[in-house]
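Researcher: Here's my situation. A collaborator sent me these components and asked whether they could plausibly form a single complex. I don't have experimental data yet, so a predicted model of the whole assembly would be a useful starting point for our discussion.
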Amino acid sequence: MSDNPSPAPSHDPLALTFAAWLTRLWLAVRAIQTGVEKYAGTAVSDQAVEIDGQPNDYGLTASSAEKTYGLENYSGVPAGLRSSFESEPLMPGFLLEPYDKVLGPALIALGATILLGILPRSSLFLLGLLYISLTWGLILLGQPGQAGVAWLGVHLILIVLALRLMPHNRLCILGKW
Amino acid sequence: MVTPGQPRRNTLDRRGFLARAGGAVGAGLVLGAPSIARAAGSPNDKIQLAIVGFGKQGRVLFEALSSVPDITRKVHFRAVCDIWDYNRKGGMAKCRALQKDQPDALPNGYVDIDEMLAKETGLDAAIVATPDFWHAPHTIRCLEAGLHVYCEKMMSNTIEGARSMVEAMERSGKLCQIGHQRRSNPRYRYTLEQLVRGHAICGQIVNINGQWNRSVNASRDIGYNPKLTIDEERLRRYGYDSMHQFMNWRTYRDLSGGPISDLGAHQIDIFNWFLGCRPKAVFATGGHSYFKDREHFDNVMTTFDYDTPQGEVRAFYQVLTTTSAGGGYYESFMGTEGTINISERAAFTNIYRESSAPSWDELIARGYLKRQAAPAPAGGGAGGGAIASYESEAPEAYQLPGELNLPPHQPHLVNFLDAVRGEAELTCDARHAFESEAPIYWVNPSAREKRRIELTSEHLDA
């Protein structure tokens, strides 16, 4: 038996701070990259096939696809899901457009504030609300969305955990909020 | 000229101008070498274009043109003609959207082609995508009005109509491209020029197999919104007994050639083009297997016999409108050393080397072919249910070295526009199209009469 036993985790300030930072980092990365991916697209380029070392005269091409990012690629709600939402009677149609526009920037902004520790409590709360809105949408879609509902539920558990660890979340700006 | 509404039947009457179609213009010699198809005087400005018929196929052609780079610098869609308000207004709106940054973005709309040709004196060319029985009258009127014409295949629902189009093209001196779009497809041209002829990878072609299998659902009658029905007087004026007939003209004998014409024409054209000659006989069978009320057979199977410089070739073609399984649509050229299955769809395109053929490794190294994954072992092994000694060794599978990543009709339309500018020769003018289409007109008579038809110049010459 050790003479200097480690303190119980709930009373270990350093471990609790690390736990807070890890949940903060995970939620931030998850939100930021999800938002950034909404600006992702694919640039397909056709290269003339070479025959006998020369580009062929017929116009035969080989395609190569490259992932690109740009404002012109932005799509908040994927097109497939969007058309499904439009046919849902409980989905207010007039909200779809603004929601589509806001979703990507909101994920990036909230992810950034959580990462930087700016208004951490409010940022986590708003991110939680955002995930709840996504959860509601997936519930509307029924069975195909059930795995997504569970996945978002895990996110929400992590947000609750991050809020619970907030007293140990150091290096914050306007940490009270 | 074909008169819509009257019974139209193929006859054996020798045309008066047949006598003029001798010498080098005779059978087979023109199948692969268009030469009379370049505009003499090309417009330096935009080509002023009319679309005659903005139904399903008209939209396909328009969409294919729309994605041509800088199309609005090359072409101005000036008029849309369609007897159905729904098609005409929709077509006009599409044109306006495409050329929104151009002056006169909205094309003029016409119900009647004669009115269009009388008023639109500045037109250079027309795309004709009306039902088959209107192809000849519309094409001839446009040619006689001084327009170059891109007309959808089949040239006509009758061989007489098709002959009259060849005659009108040559009389007018204008271009007349027929919509056998595979003739401009880089994959097909490469396959013919480099693989079949250049490197003769098939060896001696001895058989051809082609098909287009389509499901019942894809073959059902086309419906329409009753609120959009064309009034009876207009329908009758343009040769239709009813709105149903207008929407489903492909199923009526007086208006179309049926599935062998709609679908088979594209592929039987490839048989004749690749072989460079026309068949000497046709025997077909068909029936009303499922769509029992239709005038045309719903399923047709046919064989063609060829005499080629290499030897005899037998070709089988089937068009099914009741079953989609069985590999979709393709043309298969089966030789002693290799087989080329080619299709507009890359997924249906495969090339096979017979195990006894010379190696193709050099062709692969030079980029002429790509090798596919290794084939399954021949015979299926001990538990495969096959008797290995009865089976041939599995041929190696190859692919074309590249693809066409454009709408399949686009190269053919671009070829037409380039020819109008005097910058290219048509790949499928009306005479060449006729040489290739002529045997197809004898499939339905053979199937109906249940007899083999020996094809002579009387059947096949323009």
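Model: Some features of this prediction you could bring to your collaborator: The interface with chain A takes residues 186-187, 189-190, 194, 366-368, 400-405, 411 of chain B (CB under 8 Å). The two ends of chain B are 15 Å apart (CA to CA).
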